[in-house]
């Protein structure tokens, strides 16, 4: 059993050696827009000079939605001598999702924990991701099998981005996600507050439909970075349903600009981490 796990770890390591940065997107609860955030974050990275070098692992097995948001739904994965091939989305984003192995979009995934763990293992060890600058892992809500499997299989994960919305219920659950990451020694890149106020498409006025500032308060309370707030824009939902990434369609919108600012902060975090690791190695 131990030998088999070590063999799997070695296969994962060989695949992931070609991926420069690995980032997981987590949330304590559902309904916070995590997959939408992950898709647009990937597009933002690709648009900032990483075209053809960004990947998304959609590990929300029971509700995969990344393919639809990227307009690549209804396709099936194939393979060649190097392994299983990811599907290609806008700006060359490479995508793997359980939806690509189901007979149709209405087929449910009825898996217990071990099957989901095996699927994550196969996605990381058998997929021919190729050379990537960023692999974003869209995890389902909570702190169960999928996040734990990622933490175990990717000990060199660069970190996690924690997503919340302004509601107090969401904010209280965020603390569990943060504590989960800390217990597993996963670097926390920061917190993002999604659905933070509504921007009127006609006049540009911001209306606080919900309370705002909760994400920042939690970040300060837990002493972790606050990456930014993304306002509600009805076009985000409309574009996702059409399979068109929002920030490509509305580059000058406040929400798109918020995504780009978040990318800047993530890149700064990664750069600082790299410099710290290099300093540690020199010291040793």
Question: Key features?
Answer:
two-stranded antiparallel sheet; 12 strands; Rossmann fold; globular; alpha/beta; 284 residues
Describe the structure.
Helix content is about 45%, strand content about 20%. It has ten helices and twelve strands. The strands form three sheets. Strands 5-6-2-7-1-8-9-12 form an eight-stranded mixed beta sheet, with helices on both faces. A two-stranded antiparallel ribbon has the order 3-4. It has a single domain (about 1-280), classed as Rossmann fold. It is globular and about 55 Å long. With about 280 residues, the chain is α/β, with parallel strands linked by helices. Strand 5 and strand 6 form a beta hairpin. Helix 1 packs across helix 4, helix 4 (about 115-125) packs parallel to helix 5 and helix 6 runs parallel beside helix 7. The protein has helices spanning about 1-15, 35-50, 65-70, 115-125, 145-155, 170-185, 215-220, 235-240, 245-250, 255-284, and strands at about 20-25, 55-60, 80, 85, 85-90, 95, 130-140, 160-165, 190-195, 200, 205, 225-230.
């Amino acid at each position: 059993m131990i030998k088999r796990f070590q063999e799997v770890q070695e296969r994962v390591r060989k695949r992931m050696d070609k991926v420069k940065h690995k980032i997981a997107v987590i949330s304590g609860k559902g309904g916070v827009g995590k997959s939408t955030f992950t898709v647009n974050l990937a597009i933002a990275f690709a648009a900032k000079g990483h075209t053809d070098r960004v990947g998304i692992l959609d590990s929300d097995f029971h509700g995969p939605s990344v393919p639809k948001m990227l307009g690549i739904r209804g396709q099936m994965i194939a393979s060649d001598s190097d392994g299983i091939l990811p599907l290609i989305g806008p700006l060359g984003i490479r995508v793997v999702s359980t939806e690509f192995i189901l007979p149709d979009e209405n087929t449910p995934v009825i898996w217990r924990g071990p099957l989901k763990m095996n699927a994550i293992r196969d996605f990381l060890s058998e997929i021919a991701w190729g050379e990537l600058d960023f692999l974003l892992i869209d995890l389902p809500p909570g702190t169960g099998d999928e996040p734990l499997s990622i933490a175990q299989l990717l000990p060199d994960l660069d970190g996690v981005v924690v997503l919340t919305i302004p509601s107090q219920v969401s904010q209280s659950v965020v603390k569990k996600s943060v504590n989960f990451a800390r217990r597993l020694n996963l670097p926390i890149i920061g917190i993002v507050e999604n659905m933070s106020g509504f921007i009127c498409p006609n006049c540009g006025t911001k209306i606080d439909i919900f309370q705002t500032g909760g994400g920042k308060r939690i970040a300060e309370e837990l002493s972790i970075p606050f990456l930014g707030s993304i306002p509600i824009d009805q076009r985000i939902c409309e574009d996702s349903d059409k399979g068109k990434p929002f920030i490509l369609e509305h580059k000058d919108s406040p929400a798109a600009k918020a995504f780009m600012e978040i990318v800047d902060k993530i890149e700064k975090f990664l750069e600082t981490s790299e410099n710290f690791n290099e300093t540690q190695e020199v010291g040793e």
